[in-house]
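Severity: low
Component: inverse-folding endpoint
Summary: output formatting inconsistent between runs
Steps to reproduce: submit the following structure tokens with default settings.
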């Protein structure tokens, strides 16, 4: 049986071996191929990833994200001093992004009343931040 080897340089060499040794070498080559195939299916190559994309953020983005999270944590702790109605108003205006006029119409008050409530909330938050 002849076994063919191809070197990195492109040189090809054929070697004559016994049938039993040739069968064993072919079986080992097949096992190596199967192991390589199995490993590449489980893992993602880092070469194919975009280092500035979704998986890897730059240092500036990481720093900015950390600051944003700290600010949000401080804001949520400061919101603890607000009454449940005041928290609900903040959620409507800032998290649900609803219009002040729509909230006023829903509560049957003027939009000025909602603005005054928000100003009282701002003062409470300023004192606690």
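Observed output (run 2 of 3):
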């Amino acid at each position: 049986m002849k076994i063919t080897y191809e070197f990195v340089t492109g040189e090809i060499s054929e070697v004559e071996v016994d049938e039993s040794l040739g069968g064993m070498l072919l079986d080992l080559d097949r096992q190596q191929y199967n192991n390589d195939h199995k490993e590449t299916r489980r893992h993602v190559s880092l070469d194919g990833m975009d280092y500035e994309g979704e998986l890897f953020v730059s240092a500036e983005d990481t720093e900015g994200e950390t600051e944003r999270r700290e600010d949000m944590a401080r804001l949520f702790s400061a919101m603890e001093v607000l009454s449940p109605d005041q928290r609900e108003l903040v959620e409507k205006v800032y998290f649900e992004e609803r219009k002040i006029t729509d909230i006023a119409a829903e509560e049957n008050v003027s939009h000025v009343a909602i603005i005054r409530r928000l100003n009282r909330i701002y003062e409470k938050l300023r004192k606690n931040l």
